[in-house]
Design brief:
Blueprint lengths: L5 E2 L3 E5 L8 H5 L3 H4 L11 H12 L5 E7 L5 E11 L4 E8 L9 H16 L4 E7 L3 H9 L3 E12 L2 E11 H8 L2
Parallel strand pairs: 5-6
Antiparallel strand pairs: 1-2, 2-3, 3-4, 4-5, 6-8, 7-8
């Protein structure tokens, strides 16, 4: 393992490093299948845009930004982040992307989501973690539900992706709900 920060059974999370911007991560953001349910991928990815995002997210203090690493191969397979973090209200949005398609549907994302949620509640002292998903993104819905999130609402026809409007499904988990499941 290389610089592990959070360790699970199949994956570990470490901070995204500048060298990661040159690897597979760069091309994931140009891959339509990887980005079709995200806000990236609308324009070609560039070194300059990667540097700007890295500077904004990785070192801002308003986000925590992790590389998801396969423990067996030490391969960088995706990223996850909390942020922006609202330190006053103790809440944050969460995002996760498994960029390496060989790892899709094999619970790597769910494990990484559980690790970052635990980190948010236990180490950062957050009270709520939430996300807005495109309603048709069933894989992300299952991942969030498997990590303890519940559906909190739907904002009809509010997200514009690839020229069409989609319903936003809001999912969230509170610290209390997490702790009830954490102690079992």
């Amino acid at each position: 393992m290389y610089h592990p920060f959070l360790i699970g059974e199949k994956v570990y999370l470490r901070g995204v490093e500048r060298k990661d911007l040159e690897g597979d991560y760069f091309q994931w953001l140009n891959d339509y299948e990887v980005t079709k349910f995200t806000e990236v991928g609308r324009f070609p990815n560039t070194k300059e845009s990667m540097d700007e995002y890295y500077h904004e997210v990785a070192i801002s203090g308003r986000h925590t930004f992790f590389a998801i690493i396969d423990k067996v191969t030490d391969l960088h397979i995706g990223n996850t982040k909390l942020g922006p973090i609202d330190w006053y209200h103790r809440k944050a949005t969460v995002g996760l992307m498994i960029g390496n398609k060989e790892y899709w549907g094999k619970s790597y994302g769910t494990e990484a989501m559980k690790l970052i949620v635990e980190y948010g509640f236990i180490r950062l002292g957050l009270n709520k973690i939430w996300s807005a998903l495109i309603y048709t993104n069933k894989a992300s819905q299952r991942m969030c539900e498997n990590a303890g999130f519940i559906v909190e609402g739907c904002d009809r026809s509010s997200l514009l992706f690839r020229g069409d409007y989609y319903d936003a499904l809001y999912v969230g988990i509170t610290r209390d709900d997490f702790l009830k499941g954490y102690n079992k």
